[in-house]
Amino acid sequence: MCGSHTKCPHDVYPATIARAPGVSESLGLAASILAIEGALSQVGLMGTTVELPLFPFVSGERSYFGSFWGNRADLQEVLALASEGKLKHNVVTTKFDDINDSLEALGRGDIVGRAVVMFD
């Protein structure tokens, strides 16, 4: 049995974490629980800098990447399409306790669209 202050080889850490902007402290948390060879994805922009612990990322062959697209005109066009009912979307909600099952379903391709965690 592993001690509570050490990382246990029997522990399971997420291979992929997708993070939306919001609370900057969540980036540190995401980085700290990311599996070896895992990927941390930033969706959208928040601020002008990102601080990540260098050694854990390099030694664990972890990846950090992000995505950002569009401008105000693109947003206006998307909102116009949405208001005309021309965009179709699929949002699947999950409880925090069921997040691992949802991540597995996303990985298998069983969820098409967006999975959103709902907190009580």
List keywords for this structure.
120 residues, alpha/beta, 2 domains, 3-stranded parallel beta sheet, Alcohol dehydrogenase, NAD(P)-bd_dom_sf
Give the topology, please.
Layout: E1 16-19, H1 25-33, E2 39-43, H2 54-59, E3 63-67, H3 72-83, E4 91-95, H4 99-108, E5 114-118
Parallel strand pairs: 1-2, 2-3, 4-5
Concise description?
The chain is α/β, with parallel strands linked by helices.
Overall shape = globular
Instruction: Kindly report the CATH topology of the largest domain.
Output: Rossmann fold
Report the span from N to C terminus.
Answer: 33 Å
Low-confidence stretches: 1-11
CATH class of the largest domain: Alpha Beta
Report strand order across the widest sheet. 1-2-3
**How many domain regions?**
2
Question: Given the helix and strand composition, which structural class is it?
Answer: alpha/beta
- Percent helix: 25-40%
User: By CATH's scheme, which homologous superfamily of the largest domain applies?
Assistant: NAD(P)-binding Rossmann-like Domain
Quantity of strands, as a count = 5
The Cα radius of gyration reads 17 Å
The count of helical stretches stands at 4
Written as H for each helix and E for each strand, in order along the chain, the element string is EHEHEHEHE
CATH architecture heading of the largest domain: 3-Layer(aba) Sandwich
Average pLDDT works out at 76
Question: What do these coordinates show?
Answer:
This protein is α/β, with parallel strands linked by helices. The protein folds into 2 domains: 12-69, Rossmann fold (3-Layer(aba) Sandwich), CATH 3.40.50; 70-120, no CATH class. 31% of the residues lie in helices and 20% in strands. It is built from 4 helices and 5 strands; from the N terminus they run βαβαβαβαβ. Strands 1-2-3 form a 3-stranded parallel β-sheet, with helices on one face. A two-stranded parallel sheet has the order 4-5. Strand 4, helix 4 (99-108) and strand 5 form a beta-alpha-beta unit. The chain starts with 15 loop residues before the first strand and ends with a strand. Residues 1-11 have low confidence and may be disordered.
